Amino acid sequence: MDTKFHDDLAQDLSLMLNNSDDYNVIIQVGENHNMKEFRIHSNILRARSPYFKNALSTLSGRSSKRKTDNSKRNDIIEFKKPNINPNSFELILKYIYTGEVDLSKQPGEDILGVLVASDELQLGKLFDHVQDHLIEKQSVWVKQNYVLVLHTIFKLSNCKKLQDHCIKSICADPKPFITSENFPSLDRDIVYELLKRDDLQIEEAVAWDHLIKWGIEQTPGLGSKNNDRAKWSDSNYKALKRTLSHFIPLIRFVEISPADFYDKVRPYKAVIPEYIYEDITEFYYKNTLPEATILPPRNAKVRIESKLIKLNLAGIIAGWIERRNEKELSHKYNFDPLYRSSQDGVNTNTFRTKCNNQGPCLVLVKHQQSAKIYGGYNPLGFMGYGGQWCNTTESFIFSFENGRDIQNMKISRVNNGYNNYAIYEDYNQGFNFGNVFYMNSDQIYFNNNGYYDGNINNVGSPYLNINFVPEEIEVFKITTS
After folding, report:
1. What are the residue boundaries of the BTB domain, all occurrences included (predicted)?
2. Which among 118, 128, 76 is positioned nearest to 96, based on CA atoms?
3. Tally of CB atoms within 10 A around 252
């Protein structure tokens, strides 16, 4: 039977560390008044740290008369590590010699120092442990010292877990951090990581305000000594534009009110790429979503990948499903693609194979010679019956003037008393909303037989009572959470 005496081994190695008479390595850490020397055994370092194994192998065959950061003199190997503070290094040596580390009573700054040093010294298990400790046990300290922590960990490529923790925590309550006096001093990578997030819980006008303040502070020739726009030259604006060039596309301008756009964005027109400014101006004048610059609203409750409509229009459809404003949705909506005619062909058999028994579905159709988008919501899903009317009060038919327009939408719901005729299921057809809007073979049909309310005349215009070949049909499975 194996018997293991790990406790005794750790205790003996700890004594060896504290009474290192036969040391052959000196490591000097820290600098100036906060500097300390440690006498250590090279065999322990080689066995425990890949960094020291490589460094000691390099130095073991080299003799030098001059003292360098890493050098060998009189059979004593010397290292200088001014970037590691003594308190952190003591914890690291305890781990190297005994495999033990106790961070419970250590100040946060020393623990952060252990994280940085363990990364440099390639102590992977210790690095992971310290990262977890900062997340689980030091979250309050991390929050109080976000700038120090972020500037430190964004330099460590292995520190993704702590980076994600910090960014997610900030996104949940970003205003105190973004409006703090330290925000303008942040490294550009950190600012970029924050502004690109869809879950950043902040008003877009506030995000814009503080991006501008950050950019002014980061731009040579501007900053606190030159933050009065009235005194800026063209070269000042050009310099600010260069600073902000990667960040402007991250701003969700369509989420900024017209008043805030006029007061806060328009004065900085010179720093915004012309194509973005023109897109946004068109949005405010025409209420038409930008063609190329639109990003999803932060914390959007809708997800869709459609060739026919923008995300905001999917939000409007979700609002129609709940019979409320799309900004007040009670659920998150995923529109997952089931069928796309440009890929799958305009074919009822394929349609049924891909769409039957998938639950509630959204249908979108585009005419070949028109920008108009037609669609229908089937809350029952497609079931492939052999000719059967299906009862629901929740289906509806709709149209958009195009895939961007959020002003001229039309919707027609099932007429009271006709819910028994809301959906017609026939496996020989594709979709069929009450024989009012349906797909038969490779044709789309519109009729007004009274089953849907009078808005159907506007929804179907100008193709009411006319069948046409679609340019594209998309069908999405709808799930909520």
Report:
1. 23-105
2. 118
3. 19
Residue 36 corresponds to which amino acid? Answer: K
Does the CA dihedral 45-46-47-51 come out positive or negative?
positive
CA distance 135 to 265: 37
Q: Write the DSSP symbol of residue 229.
A: G
Using one digit for the tens of pLDDT, what is the confidence trace for 89-137?
999 999 998 888 999 999 999 999 999 999 999 999 999 999 999 999 9
Neighbouring CB atoms inside 10 A of 44's CB total 18
What does the alpha-carbon distance between residue 261 and residue 266 come to, in Å, rounded to a whole number?
A: 6
| Radius of gyration in angstroms for the set of CA atoms belonging to the chain, rounded to a whole number | 33
Domain ranges of the chain: 6-136, 173-286, 302-480
Residue 263 in tokens: 């007061």
Q: Which residues pair with 413 in a beta bridge?
A: 396
Residue 473 sits at φ, ψ, to 5 deg, of -125, 135
| 398 DSSP β-pair partners | 375, 411
Q: For the domain 6-136, what is the CATH superfamily, name and number?
A: Potassium Channel Kv1.1; Chain A (3.30.710.10)
Closest CA to 303 of 295, 313, 294, 311: 311
Q: DSSP code of 452? A: B
Class of domain 173-286: mainly alpha
* CA-CA-CA-CA torsion sign (10, 11, 14, 19): negative
Question: pTM of whole model > 0.90?
Answer: no
453 touches 413 (CB < 8 A) = yes
Q: Which residues contact 356 (CB under 8 A, 6 or more apart)?
A: 381, 382, 383, 384, 427
Element (H, E) at 11: helix 6-18
DSSP element (H, E) containing 150: helix 146-153
What proportions of the chain, in percent to the nearest 5, are helix, strand and coil?
45, 20, 35
pLDDT one-digit tens code per residue, 248-294: 999 999 889 899 999 999 999 999 999 899 988 888 888 777 766 56
Structure tokens at 158: 């292995």
Residue type at position 62: R
Q: How far is CA 157 from CA 162, 168, 369, in A?
A: 11, 18, 52
Report the alpha-carbon angle 320-322-328, nearest 5.
95
- Closest alpha carbon to 319 in 250, 409, 383, 388: 409
